Amino acid sequence: MIPRVTVRRLVPQLRPGVASLRFKTTSASKDEIGHFQELAPTWWDVNGSQRILHLMNNSRLDFIQRIIRQSVKVEDPDTYIPGFQYKAFFPQQVSQGIEDDLDSKINEKLKDAQFNVLDIGCGGGILAECLARLPITRHVTGVDLTPDVIKVAREHSAKDPALSGKLEYRLQALEEVEGTYDLVTCFEMLEHVDVPAEILRHAWMRLKPQGILFLSTINRDFISWFTTIFMGEYVLKVVPKGTHHLTKYIKSSEIKEWFQENEPHTHKILDTKGVMYRPFNGWAEHDCPDIGNYFMAIKKLN
Ligand SMILES: C[S@@+](CC[C@H](N)C(=O)[O-])C[C@H]1O[C@@H](n2cnc3c(N)ncnc32)[C@H](O)[C@@H]1O
Predict the structure, then answer these.
(1) If you count DSSP H runs as helices and E runs as strands, how many of each does the chain have, helices first?
(2) Per UniProt, where does Mg(2+) bind (predicted)?
(3) pLDDT tens digit string along 28-65?
């Protein structure tokens, strides 16, 4: 029987002012820290405890880069008339020509981009390292609350001299992070915290106007239980047992409702994609973001 949890779980359970006097509202639970501490030694083994995250990495990098490219405005009227469905009217060769032209204009605009990125719940750095290697990235700051995982992240990144000065890991609660970032990422982390609304609130505070928050988590439904817990943990055993708890999963509609309630005029959902693990074939995006795992991109408007 699947427990029913309402959207209220996303809403902070303590008034922030009161909460911050007593403890950090974005703290990780002891159980979660203990679990990830145990998994730390095999974090970078592509067939080890984090195999599923290694496999997911290309899909999330594709998602992030696609959204960034789509956010670049090309205003050259010779190339592009906004809203004109050229693919529907022109022969394939002509459409391809327009697309190539648009691509090179976007490349040109992104050539000088230098994004500062905050990766929340960075773990051992599977995503953070790749983000730091992108030519559009100036610097990535990864924060996490599991000490051994941060240690593994630091040791692993030290092996690549190209990452020197581009990537920094901190054992730090989100409340203690200062400054604002062009991009904030929070992948496969929200389903491991007690008060996800507080993570969202702080993640949003750390984002610059016009910045983009990228997140991924898991819908709370039967399909998710079947794929991520029953199949993933017990049948295929690609995820360590006890990693996931259905009651902590968050529906994509709840994230959208949270933004609607808390940031009604300052956000725009750029995209939400379902993602599915296909044994032997890795992860693939699909168009049903309301079941199973999903990626989401939210822009801060001002
Ligand atoms: C499944 S791992 C995901 C790691 C990384 N984001 C990735 O996708 O490769 C979840 C991570 O979230 C971290 N975490 C859990 N609760 C946290 C919290 N409240 N604050 C910061 N990190 C937390 C854990 O220590 C763990 O490293």
Answers:
(1) 10, 8
(2) 188, 191-192
(3) 889 999 999 999 999 999 999 999 999 999 999 999 99
